[in-house]
Amino acid sequence: MQGQHFSATTPAAGISGSGLRAEGVSVSFSGIKALTEVDFRITTGEVVGLIGPNGSGKTTLLNVLSGVYRPSSGRTFVNEIETTSLRAHRIARLGVARTFQNIRLFGNMTVLQNVQVGSALSDARPRGAELRDAALKTLDELGLNEFQERRAGTLPYGIRRRIEIARALATKPKFLLLDEPAAGANGAESEELSELIEMIASHYSLGVLVIEHDLRLMMRVASRIVALTGGRVIAEGDAEGISQNQAVREAYFGKKWAAESFAEPSLTTESMLEETK
Asked: What start and end residues bound the annotated signal peptide (predicted)?
């Protein structure tokens, strides 16, 4: 994993500036709080991992950032533009693209047609031959050219995941939000996905937010990791700092496991990951 070292501590409030941001965001559903005063930011050029147990608020935060949900309180921004009250399609126009936990391709359309849908939504608004060329360029960059005339619904799971990412990238976003891209993937597909995310981060000038339960993938690709539990940010840091953070361990494994682990000073990121198998 590359990137600057961050201490794994709860970030201070007030994170104004550039980037895709949530400031003091809370979300409630029928009186139940899914997020509580969350501050979060991702800037262009970085890969940020968002981790936490099931029900911790990860997808809710992604939904708020992309405009699927509106926060009950707090504000969201894309760079200097406040997006708190904007609908999802307006936020997408500002450069926010996303994928979903469940693949949402047009199964009866070809791979090329799926990616053309994304290209048509980019700021350039290409049409005709330009639209096809733009989609083919994205397919080539993601190693999907050989599938361009195949119907998306007939392809293996791992390929369909890549197509969904290609369609999102075809919109020419500033920020790409990936919601559990390795869900349902086998070991080989997860490894290929890690390489794909690393390529995207190095090749495109955008920020990448990844929600994932595959900690090995997350520790490999993310330059910064934010941990949520109970709808609150409990820690932020690099892979090693997060793996040694007691609040994160307790959230995942319970207080007893966390206490026993901290009694063993030689515990590393790798040994933590071994325990999660």
From this structure: none
Q: Which domain holds residue 193?
A: 1-95+181-242
Q: How would you write the pLDDT of the chain (277 residues) with one tens digit per residue?
A: 333 333 344 443 445 568 999 999 999 999 899 999 999 999 998 999 999 988 999 999 999 999 999 999 999 999 999 999 999 999 999 999 999 888 889 989 999 999 999 998 887 777 888 899 999 999 999 999 999 999 999 999 889 999 999 999 999 999 999 999 988 888 888 888 899 998 898 888 899 999 988 888 888 899 999 999 999 999 999 988 888 888 888 887 776 555 554 444 333 444 444 544 4
Q: Which residues of 244-265 are buried (b: 16+ CB within 10 A; e: fewer)?
A: bbebbbbbbbeeeebeebeeee
Please state the domain count of the chain.
2
Give the C-alpha separation, 258 to 133, whole Å: 53
pTM of the model: 0.83
125 and 207 together in one domain: no
In a domain, 109, yes or no: yes
**What token pair was written down for 7?**
């201490």
